Amino acid sequence: MALKAAQKQIVAKAQARAGVVAPRVVKGSRSVRMAVQARAFNAVQIPLAVRRVCGSASRRSNMVVMAAAVKDGAVLPEGRKLRVAVIGGGPSGACAAETLAQGGVEAFLIERKMDNCKPCGGAIPLCMVQEFDLPQEIIDRKVTKMKMISPSNREVDVGKTLSETEYIGMCRREVMDDYLRKRAEKDGANIINGLMMKMEQPVADGPITIHYNGYAEGSKIGTPATLEVDLVIGADGANSRVAKEIDAGEYDYAIAFQERIRIPDDKMKYYENLAEMYVGDDVSPDFYGWVFPKYDHVAVGTGTVVNKTAIKQYQQATRDRAKVKTEGGKIIRVEAHPIPEHPRPRRCKGRVALVGDAAGYVTKCSGEGIYFAAKSGRMCAEAIVEASENGKKMCGESAIRVYLDKWDRKYWTTYKVLDILQKVFYRSNPAREAFVEMCEDSYVQKMTFDSYLYKTVVPGNPLDDVKLLVNTVASIVRANALRAADSKSVDVNFGSKATEEFQARATA
């Protein structure tokens, strides 16, 4: 009895500090609780610390904090803001939480791995640096040169069309994600170190209850806790638990494998502003291998969808292809993670939305996902802020649909074109040789970099477009002819210079 009295006193003090009226507490069976929950009365968000203190006693006495069912479009009671839980604290989740908080919505961001080091190339386009106001200190390297390396080891320098102010930013995900989360917190978002276990919404238009394990700093053992919100944004990656909760459907995914390698200073100098991309059946049957520069090391990795069990074999091949330039290096971290290959069949249900990798927003051919993750999180949050009139009204699926419609209109073509390019040029080594050959063309480089750096399709010169089409068709025809002849990758080339360079390496 003394314990219960103490718990009530703690809750009362917390409510007094927040200036709210005490919530109704209901005892009894689940059916009784659900019946009471259907009745309308104002909801109160008990602070996380209070919920943890009262958690065990609440479970023993079968007590729950109830909230009202509120229709979409209804004005919320004075002093009560719209509450949104964002599950996942990567770029999509952090940007969603930041936008919600700035827009007057009460945002809760739940992330388990605050020091997460996702196996990601870490490349971000210039427009993201500008659009999301990213500081220079989180950018490890500014890549202004790139080498595309074919199956026959033909090297093509890419980046000749970049201006002095243009670059591709290279960052470490643990640094960038931490910055974005802290910025969201500074703007008013509530950051919770926790792992979502399940969601419940027993009453239509009622609150969604998030069950999660909360973790104190330095603790590996979680404490069960709950959080009642009006909407949920699933930003919890390719293995999204939120997606499973709304039965979002399965999708194919790639396995990305990456090793961080600290190499000697003289070799690091070579990669100071240079990134490399390797293509070939040896490094991946349907993707590419990469060497991207970081702060004091390089990230060497690859990925595949069609043969995931051989990922370590492809990784070894990527290291072998870059061996001379990374010789003497020491592996300091090994990482692996799934990457979605296409959007999920369902990206929203009721008052639950998916963004970033959870929604499947990774482009084929390039494997880019960071910008699209951050952008989708922001667009989803903006739609909620607008529909709720800065957190003053209830909103739901109609607001989420606005975000999805805008997203599809803006980016559907981009995803479709890159999907086609991957199917055409990543299907065989001859096709990859044709792809690398095309990358040597200055017009191709300009159109490619303009599209990547600024995420807009820049109108091309009609005459150059016709030439590009002719060259593309010719390259594909040659690739098909060589493929039909069952050529070996080391013998495939589209110019005498490539042959001479490869033979020189082989005899060196």
UniProtKB/TrEMBL annotation:
Pathway noted in the entry? Cofactor biosynthesis; tocopherol biosynthesis; Porphyrin-containing compound metabolism
Q: What InterPro entries is this protein classified in?
A: BchP_ChlP_pln/prok, FAD-bd, FAD/NAD-bd_sf, Geranylgeranyl_Rdtase_fam, Geranylgeranyl_Rdtase_pln/cyn, Geranylgeranyl_reductase
Biological process, per Gene Ontology: chlorophyll biosynthetic process; photosynthesis
Which GO molecular function annotations are given, in alphabetical order? FAD binding; geranylgeranyl diphosphate reductase activity; geranylgeranyl reductase activity
Q: Where does the signal peptide begin and end?
A: none
Answer yes or no on keyword NADP: yes
Q: Which reaction does it catalyse?
A: phytyl diphosphate + 3 NADP(+) = geranylgeranyl diphosphate + 3 NADPH + 3 H(+)
Q: Report one GO cellular component.
A: chloroplast thylakoid membrane
Q: Which UniProt keywords apply?
A: Chlorophyll biosynthesis, NADP, Oxidoreductase, Photosynthesis
- Origin: domain of life: Eukaryota
Q: What is its EC number?
A: 1.3.1.83
The record places domain FAD-binding at: 82-373
Give the family this protein belongs to, as stated in its UniProt record: Belongs to the geranylgeranyl reductase family. ChlP subfamily.
Its job: Catalyzes the reduction of geranylgeranyl diphosphate to phytyl diphosphate, providing phytol for both tocopherol and chlorophyll synthesis.
**What name does the UniProt record give this protein?**
Geranylgeranyl diphosphate reductase, chloroplastic
Q: Which organism is it from?
A: Tetradesmus obliquus
